[in-house]
Amino acid sequence: MKRYFIAGNWKMYKTIPEAVELASELKKELADCKEKLMIAPPFTALHSVAQVIKGSNILLGAQNMGPEESGAHTGEISVLMLKDIGVRVIILGHSERRHTYGESDALINTKVRLALKHDLEVILCVGETLEEREQGVLENVIRRQLAEGLIGVDASMLPNVTIAYEPVWAIGTGKTATPEDADSVHAFCRRVIAELYGSDIAKNLVIQYGGSVKPENVVALMTKKNVDGALVGGASLKAESFVPIAKFR
User: Fold this and answer.
1) The CATH classification of domain 5-246, taken from the options 3.50.50.60, 2.60.40.10, 3.20.20.70, 1.25.40.10
2) N or C: which end of the chain has fewer CB atoms below 10 A?
């Protein structure tokens, strides 16, 4: 039976006590969940949350990382620091990093290769703006983000890569791509990966949908053929909304 990957991105929310409280609740409520689970607290709460979920079925994720192992990079967090506190998964290329902070495909690719070098899993985010969708260049954008984001990534590393399709216009807006729209873009992502790595790898690639996923729409999204999970933003900040998403079936 297909196992879905449900990940929570807490973004710039939660003090340490708040993060610990939520992680504790999720650990309890999701103990019997059969899906693959991850939560990504803010950097300040990672160590405390790591202690809470240690030994549970919830993986610890980070929302970003620096492009170097160490050095004079004021304000950055290195892959070694993240591994040191138990992080297992890194979210890279999120639209907020691309569009708010100007991260390029080349920079994101550097981070992807570094995370994989250190045996961490990567969630590589791709997605188009509303303007790009309306201009009819959605596929060009997605193809570029995938191809350039995976430069130098060997096929043997793909089992540690998850793709998250997140239409930028649907993040934090309450708008959601229709299940049919999401499935169509996920299928396109799979075709691009097939061109790059072959059909077998593409078939087994996990592709999440991100963009205002909530309990009310999760079933319709997850039952689509090419949708393998969810990268959840706002709805991951409360147990009463994240738990039903994770336990959608």
Assistant:
1) 3.20.20.70
2) N
